[in-house]
Amino acid sequence: MTAPVLTSIVPGAGPLHASAYFVRLYLPLEFQASPPLPLPELNLKPDSWFSHCIAVRKFSGFARDSNVVKEAEKLAISLSKSPWANSTSDSKSAYSIAQYNSPFRFLGRQNEVWVDIVGSEANGCKSKLLASY
Q: Which domains does the chain have, with CATH numbers?
């Protein structure tokens, strides 16, 4: 399995306006030039991201609906107190959850909630910038 496994939440895109999601699996750099081909019946599509800034909040334990929503809310509160308060992206997804550990690992788990930031270069977001609020 790859790490992180990234699950993006798309509010209102599911049946009866429920939230939907899509899952991204990271392909290491060594395989990106000629990626393995998935089975056609899996209906998988490659997706590329350009370099961009994201706001991240780390949390431990298993990523469950109850704690992921709380962590996303805490990230939103932190962003509201930062220079990037009005810089969250208008992308399809509201937020993403990055999970770095196998489901068989019970202790020392690492997860993150991600939110895309737009216009971040103008607001001081650089690839090596770290801010905590």
A: 1-28+48-133 (3.20.80.10)
Beta strands in the chain (DSSP E): 5-10, 20-25, 54-59, 95-99, 111-116
CA distance 7 to 84: 23
φ, ψ for residue 94 (rounded to 5)? -75, -45
User: Which residue type occupies 54?
Assistant: I
Structure tokens at 50: 């350009």
Rounded Cα–Cα distance for residues 2 and 127 (Å): 23
- Alpha-carbon distance values, 39 to 5, 26, 76, 123 (Å): 19, 17, 38, 43
Largest interatomic CA distance in the chain: 46
Compute CA distances 112 → 12, 63, 100, whole Å. 22, 9, 9
3-state helix, strand and coil shares in percent for the chain, rounded to the nearest 5: 20, 25, 55
76-108 pLDDT per residue, tens: 898 888 877 777 665 556 889 999 998 898 999
